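Extended Data, panel c. Modelled sequence:
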Amino acid sequence: VVVKNPSGAATQESLNNKKTETSKEESHTMEVSENQKQKLSLFKKNLLKSASIQEQSQWTDSLIVAFKAVNQWDSAANYAEKLSEKVNNEAAWLKTAETYFEAFTFALDSTKIRTLGQKGYTAYEKVLSLNESNLLAQTKMGVIYKSLNPQAPMK
């Protein structure tokens, strides 16, 4: 609750609430250690040097795991999506969709929730374009749709 006095200045109560909000947000971020930064950097360099799709897939998988370990789900999903665009198969798009879904479920910021949800939804659509009977993709699309549009009827 933000309380302003007649002069428009914030009171101590509103300043204390702001500190609580900030510390709550900070508690959901994870400090990346120097070792983790080096590992991420190595994986990125090796991904860039990779000539074959198989090598790119292996380094992308390593990056995804490393980004998840430091709670950078959106970065993990971004790398998964880049690989899916090259490979363009059901398994790759499902991994991308699932990673975006995880990022969507862990996001705290409403803008990020909407963006990650929409990207996940789009990735699930690509899964369904390759296999329209994929029940996992259909179900997760429904979850995202209802989460982003709580008042809308189900499609």
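Helices lie at 12-26, 34-49, 53-69, 73-87, 90-106, 110-130, 135-148. This feature is highlighted in the accompanying rendering.
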